[in-house]
Amino acid sequence: MRNKKLIKNRTLNAHLPKQFWKVLILSFVMLLTCIIASLAFGSRIVTKDELLAGLFFSDVESYGASVVRERIPRTIFSLFCGAALGVSGALMQAVTRNPIADPSILGVNTGAALFVVGGLAFFNISTAGQYIWFAITGAMITAVFVYGIGSMGRSGPTPLKLVLAGAATSAALSSLVSAIMLPRSYVMDQFRFWQVGSLGSANWNGITTFLPFLIIGVILAIMTAPALNALALGDEVATGQGVRTGVLRLVAAFAGVILCGAATALAGPIGFIGLLSTHLMRLLLGPDLRYVIPMSALSGAAILTISDVSGRLIGSPGELEAGVLTAFLGAPILIYLATRMKVRSL
């Protein structure tokens, strides 16, 4: 009876978190600030008049206005990729019931990277669509492999076993990436900037190719959120409430993998966004995934965008890739979570 009441509270009659509207408004303010900063700051800082001219007056042909127009696709792309990685992190934590699950930690990013390298070396891939399909295939195979390894033994897929399986798989796949690249200098030249996670090559073609995967992944995530709340109470309890746990995990994992794979294909293996954004929203709003998932999209978009802007300012007149900044921020937080939370289940 107690478990049934908990499920009812968490999935059917749960009230809006007290801080929801405050967090939502603050998130939109932060997102708007990040968008303005992304358009205004870089190797050349534009003025307010140049920013307005670049956004709203297409007939103005000043250099500053042209710079703003050139930054628009990069800004949109950083928002989309950050949102995709934020939702992917929330889904992976829910499916694995692992508080430190993240595409980069579970090796999914590395699997996507391996298939992209293989595509460059053996199939001469070049278009955004080819990058995405190769990356998603690699991400899916890696996710299945890691979950299978982590599920071995009597205790099943425990959080610690999944993390260890992901770390070991990531190390092995990284070695394969190096083995493919080293004898092929042309592949290394194409891969080295992509590998650190950069948004500098964003363009409208990549955005339009990426958008359908983002929409499908987010819709599936929102649809599965109520059932994932029940899954957090355990498989037996969720099954007793009519949740088909196997199908639920498959659909949620599929959504997480296509979001992560598509973002990784075009931006490179940017890590820790899912970890940072999801834990921030859990801290502010509680565990209800109906709110955590969409808010993780907003916070992930803001975190990646501000990381990209910070990289441009720190590395000026060049730039420091966003993946380096997110790793610098995420690694200490991961260490803190691993030591203080003891990798317990959600």
UniProtKB/TrEMBL annotation:
<keyword id="KW-1133">Transmembrane helix</keyword>
<keyword id="KW-1003">Cell membrane</keyword>
<feature type="transmembrane region" description="Helical">
    <location>
        <begin position="291"/>
        <end position="310"/>
    </location>
</feature>
<keyword id="KW-0813">Transport</keyword>
<feature type="transmembrane region" description="Helical">
    <location>
        <begin position="162"/>
        <end position="182"/>
    </location>
</feature>
<dbReference type="InterPro" id="IPR000522">
    <property type="entry name" value="ABC_transptr_permease_BtuC"/>
</dbReference>
<feature type="transmembrane region" description="Helical">
    <location>
        <begin position="106"/>
        <end position="125"/>
    </location>
</feature>
<feature type="transmembrane region" description="Helical">
    <location>
        <begin position="131"/>
        <end position="150"/>
    </location>
</feature>
<feature type="transmembrane region" description="Helical">
    <location>
        <begin position="76"/>
        <end position="94"/>
    </location>
</feature>
<feature type="transmembrane region" description="Helical">
    <location>
        <begin position="322"/>
        <end position="339"/>
    </location>
</feature>
<feature type="transmembrane region" description="Helical">
    <location>
        <begin position="210"/>
        <end position="234"/>
    </location>
</feature>
<feature type="transmembrane region" description="Helical">
    <location>
        <begin position="20"/>
        <end position="41"/>
    </location>
</feature>
<keyword id="KW-0472">Membrane</keyword>
<keyword id="KW-0812">Transmembrane</keyword>
<comment type="similarity">
    <text>Belongs to the binding-protein-dependent transport system permease family. FecCD subfamily.</text>
</comment>
<dbReference type="InterPro" id="IPR037294">
    <property type="entry name" value="ABC_BtuC-like"/>
</dbReference>
<feature type="transmembrane region" description="Helical">
    <location>
        <begin position="246"/>
        <end position="271"/>
    </location>
</feature>
<protein>
    <submittedName>
        <fullName>Iron ABC transporter permease</fullName>
    </submittedName>
</protein>
<dbReference type="Pfam" id="PF01032">
    <property type="entry name" value="FecCD"/>
</dbReference>
